[in-house]
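Hi everyone, sorry if this is the wrong subforum. Our group has a chain we'd like a structural model of before ordering constructs, and none of us has done structure prediction before. Sequence below.
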Amino acid sequence: MDFSQMLERPRRLRGNPLIRSMVRETRVSKSSLIYPVFVRDGKNILEPIPSLDGQMRCSVDRLGDILEDVAKAGVKNVMLFGIPDHKDEVGSQAYAEDGVVQRALRFAKEHYPELYLITDVCMCEYTSHGHCGVLCGHEVDNDKTLPLIAKTALSHVQAGADMVAPSDMMDGRVLAIRQELDKNGFTSTPIMSYAVKYSSAFYGPFREAAGSAPSFGDRKGYQMDFHNRKEALKEAALDVREGADILMVKPAMSYLDIVREVADNFDLPVAAYSVSGEYAMIKAAAKAGLIDEAAVACEAAASVFRAGAGILLTYYAKELAKWIDEGRIG
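Answer:
Right subforum, don't worry. Here is the predicted structure as tokens:
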């Protein structure tokens, strides 16, 4: 057979690492990564999280141990999650001036001004019942929760947050936060909404890490049914109209189709959260000798950007930064 007239040869652009890098369609950079940090009440605490191998919980006075590593890795964005000692029915420590996140923000702003500080805005870590809002019987009261979510976001920004990220999935919470921030002069503070957050089994390790598992029932009444695609676009559209600046899809790995849908249908930047279950599965498989951890983690991260996200919240942020420097991803 004569192949001399074969004009199209895609392999020409795969011949060596330099050409493959030059024509790469999907780029991953350190500036697109966000690292989650768990801060808890107490003193001199820097403790491993059993369900998240390699991750730590820390008290505010030890927060520098974690942020130092993040900064040295070249990751500039962190998201803070708070774990209070005191919990009550209305999650009062979520919006307390001396709450754990508020103190962590003030510490980080003073000692690591080069970092961009984002806060998770929710109540599940702060309520005695573990749900994401105020209860009416055994149901979360959406409208009674909104003022507390907005109050929490405002307290974070007043303490130094550069961006707030509401994750509660209450209807109208983006508008409530936007109005509260604007009313208090924080018109320039962006909101990264967990716009499309599914009720997922992939959250298990996080709930152990943050002590946020509900004491009864589940969160299917406010988080999305994982069977639904069109509902994701409806949720994202609502948040756009309410003033969101960035739209997040959570989880990432099993919802790459949704990441693509959101990216294709809206002009706002799209983020995705590679959640605790995804991280734990890769860690467990690597520990069992079944996979190359770095190769799989890099491939999984690239898939999120290939699907259309421009921002990735991941427990692998520090390692990905190192692998970018080594040329394993980028």
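For your construct planning: The radius of gyration is 21 Å. The longest helix spans residues 142-159.
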